[in-house]
């Protein structure tokens, strides 16, 4: 097996093996990637990435990039194991949406950042498609649930009407054991003799 002598290719291959779709998280109702992960993918330092963003703030409106609050930072660090290094960082991380990640790649202007920006955008698109598919599945499940409720009510009514018919008839009285003769009742009367005195 031949090893590449070009260190750039090795780094690029290592970055591609990172599960990027796991690094895209939801904050404030938006799918974002944090500056540390984006800088790692683009082959730059987090400091350099944030410097470029500060120099070009006009290119990063709030729907492209935003600074996390302390509580959001603590929540993200608690949820994501790969972000434990942010726990004691005095700097609040910056989150980039899909468009902000592409804009950051254009600012860095390195060949690796340009190449990896396509990778990042494809990861965002893949997650968006999965969300749409999940929404369609949830909608279909809601429709099925609704029809099941209707059918359940109808079946319950039918069962209530059939229940008296399904109950077994009352058992006939058991015959008595032994020999029994049923005779017509004959009035037996014992006459009492009058007592003689």
Characterize the structure shown.
The protein is of the alpha+beta class and 197 residues long. The chain has a domain of 122 residues. Helices cover 55% and strands 7% of the residues. It is built from seven helices and four strands, in the order H-H-E-E-H-H-E-H-E-H-H. The chain has a four-stranded antiparallel β-sheet. Strand 1 and strand 2 form a beta hairpin. The termini are far apart.
Q: What share of the residues does DSSP label as strand, in percent?
A: 5-15%
Query: What is the average of the pLDDT values?
Result: 77
Unreliable spans are 1-5, 7-16
Order of helices and strands: HHEEHHEHEHH
Taking the sheet with the most strands, its summary is:
4 strands, antiparallel
**Helicity level, as a percent range?**
55-70%
Strand order, biggest sheet? 1-2-4-3
| Total beta strands | 4
Rg calc: 41 Å
Q: What's the number of helices?
A: 7
Straight-line N-to-C gap: 145 Å
**Helix vs. strand class:** alpha+beta
Shape: rod-shaped
Name the features:
single chain, alpha+beta, 4-stranded antiparallel beta sheet, 7 helices, 7% strand, 197 residues
Give a summary of the structure in a few sentences.
The protein has a domain at 7-128.
What is the element layout, followed by pairings?
Blueprint lengths: L6 H10 L3 H4 L1 E3 L2 E5 H8 L3 H10 L9 E3 L2 H10 L14 E3 L1 H11 L2 H56 L31
Antiparallel strand pairs: 1-2, 2-4, 3-4
